[in-house]
Amino acid sequence: MKNLSKSYNSVKALTDVSFELQPGQMLAVLGPSGCGKTTLLRSIAGFEIPNEGTIEIGGETVFSNRVYLAPEKRRIGYVPQEGALFPHLSVAQNIAFGLPRGLKRNERVREMLALVGMEGFEKRMPHELSGGQQQRVALARALAPAPSLILLDEPFSALDTGLRAKLRDDIRLALEKTNATSIMVTHDQEEALSMADVIAVMRNGEIVQFAEPDDIYTTPKDLKVATFVGDTVLVDGCLNGDCVECPLGSLPVIHQAIHSDGRNATVMIRPEQLTLGERNSGISAEVIKTTYFGHDSLVHLQIGDHENSCQVSIRVLGKPQVKTGDIVGLQVNGNVMVY
Ligand code: ATP
Question: Which sequence ranges are marked TM in the entry (predicted)?
Fold first, then answer.
């Protein structure tokens, strides 16, 4: 996709969006509500006509200022949020819908049902399936004609948390088996980080960062991306060479972070970089409060004296081994980001 823009009257839904995907990759388009994710997906599918830009799929131009290929000619599979299935058709008929007539049809339906783990459901009607089963069938239907690209628009949004996690793994596996290239829209950072090969973080119609999940998480482009993709511990600091001086000590800065000496900066640390130890290890901190959540707990800490102090909260597994008033040692592991 090159320089794609789309406006609805005065609303700029997409501004100058460009990116490239390799065959077989999964891209997650991640961003808050209204940032243009669905418009991007619908433009690729051919349901929206952009104002400017070019879209190529497998080397073929499907949209430019001179070309507009109709959705059915783009060889794309589309899995919408929910309600994707034809209610009056059985599971088998739904999957066979886009396939050419012939003997191989039934074979392909069975193959697709096996791929999504739904053998034996051929005769069921959509209303006789759970939400998760419906989404599996919707994916099977989208994959049946062997499209070059699969588009998934928040495919798990209607499902509860447990089912989501299971379906995530299964869908990822099914896509890997068919080697399909896919683009999934989501506003769930966990979904994007766990499923995608690359993530495009969108804001106000623009892609603010396009990178692999690990890069997005460890070196987010700005503070908004940092807080959008995970929990953060933020403290004030001052840059000094490759380090930043802050109440948590002199911390090495990730080399990608652009900085200059003496500048005041916000230091971004991921909570799992912080560990608690004996009072003589690391930075001395006082426990202000602990909050127990079952599988983990939050420990709120006061660090430093009046001029150079801050409070941070860190997560520890299970019940905290410390209590209010304890003096503990806090260690920061790895390099930190600065903004
Ligand atoms: P969500 O996560 O809530 O589905 P989104 O990121 O998919 O949001 P889009 O649906 O692409 O966002 O919308 C992008 C912007 O374009 C929004 O400001 C929206 O109000 C506007 N918009 C979308 N469709 C239309 C339309 N048909 N007419 C006018 N404005 C529209």
Answer: none
At residue 241, what is the residue type? G
Same domain, 79 and 190: yes
| Nearest atom in ligand 1 to 35's CA | 6
Confidence (pTM): 0.88
pLDDT in tens, 288-333: 999 999 998 999 999 987 777 888 988 889 999 999 999 999 999 9
66 alpha-carbon distance from chain centroid: 33
Residue 42 CA: which ligand 1 atom is closest?
11
The closest residue, in CA terms, to atom 5 on ligand 1 is 34
CA separation for the pair 81, 155 (Å, rounded):
5
- pLDDT, tens digit (0-9, with 9 covering 90-100), for 222-244: 999 999 998 899 999 998 888 99
Q: Who lines ligand 1 at CB under 6 A?
A: 8, 11, 13, 31, 33-39, 187
78 and 204 co-located in one domain? yes
Q: 18: CA distance to ligand 1 center in Å?
A: 19
Distance 12 CA to ligand 1 centre (A): 9
Is 193 within 8 Å of 168 (Cβ atoms)? no
Question: What domain range includes position 301?
Answer: 231-338
- The Å distance, Cα 34 to ligand 1 centre, comes to 5
| Residue 34, C-beta contacts closer than 8 angstroms, at least 6 positions apart | none
Element (H, E) at 167: helix 161-178
112 and 220, same domain (yes or no): yes
Task: Evaluate whether 322 touches 290 at the Cβ level (below 8 Å).
Answer: yes
In sequence order, what are the beta bridge partners of 269? 233
- Say how many domains are in the chain: 2
ipTM of the complex: 0.96
Nearest CA to ligand 1 atom 14: 36
Q: Which residue matches tokens 């392909």?
A: 108
